[in-house]
Specification:
mainly alpha; 2 domains; disordered C terminus; flat
């Protein structure tokens, strides 16, 4: 703020970035901060504070870690079909593994019936391609265990199955589809803690997935009914 007053130029992104670079690293921090980390932090902060209009909606959609929050933004405040379709397509292409599958599995059935606004036919097709993998799960999984291991069970299957077993009805069926889809698509991937991309909190993901289903169900109930005499 002081820098903008001194410069007399108003809010200027280059000034804010310069001040950020000069402020890092702190004297108490011995390691050098990578340039990429500084730029990423600046971009996130700048977009959050200064982005307006349609771009702010896109930013808010991508910034949200919650699938149900993304869906609510799409249903309630999306600026246009073109922006909604492009933003969802980008998320499907670049979103975190597991989250894109859960989103597609939740949204596609309603989108195919025309109950999700702001999505064009191409984007609905992209949702369908991913959702079909979860709706028609078939295959086998294999994994490696060390000779010294006391358990030969799959690293995630037993833990996730216990979560699914506590559910009932249609929610349990959907959760089973989601679980099998995830297991089949990470069957050749290490489950090490360092592999953050494939680390999935299945309980949280299933809960967020179920919330998406509830939002769509409530939206369907709220739709006006057409009576034909």
């Amino acid at each position: 703020m002081a820098a903008t007053i001194v410069s007399g130029e108003g809010i200027n992104e280059k000034i804010f970035l310069s001040i950020l670079k000069c402020s890092l690293p702190q004297l108490s921090y011995e390691a050098e901060v990578p340039e990429s980390a500084i730029l990423a932090a600046h971009r996130l902060a700048w977009d959050t504070v200064c982005t307006t209009g349609d771009q702010k909606w896109v930013h808010d959609f991508h910034l949200s870690n919650s699938l149900s929050a993304k869906l609510s933004l799409l249903l309630n405040s999306c600026p246009s079909e073109d922006i909604g379709s492009a933003t969802v397509a980008e998320f499907l292409a670049n979103g975190r593994f597991g989250h894109t599958g859960a989103f597609a599995l939740a949204v596609y059935p309603a989108a195919a019936e025309g109950r999700v606004p702001n999505l064009n036919a191409e984007c609905i097709s992209d949702l369908g391609k991913i959702a079909q993998l979860a709706l028609s799960v078939e295959g086998s999984i294999s994994w490696y265990v060390s000779y010294s291991s006391t358990s030969k069970a799959h690293p995630q299957r037993d833990k996730w199955s216990k979560i699914v077993s506590k559910l009932t009805g249609a929610r349990r069926e959907r959760a089973e589809h989601l679980m099998k889809y995830l297991l089949l698509n990470i069957k050749d991937v290490s489950f090490s803690e360092s592999d953050d991309y494939y680390q999935i909190d299945f309980k949280a993901l299933e809960g967020d997935f179920h919330k998406c289903i509830q939002i769509l169900a409530e939206t369907h109930k709220a739709e006006p009914k057409v009576q034909i005499d």
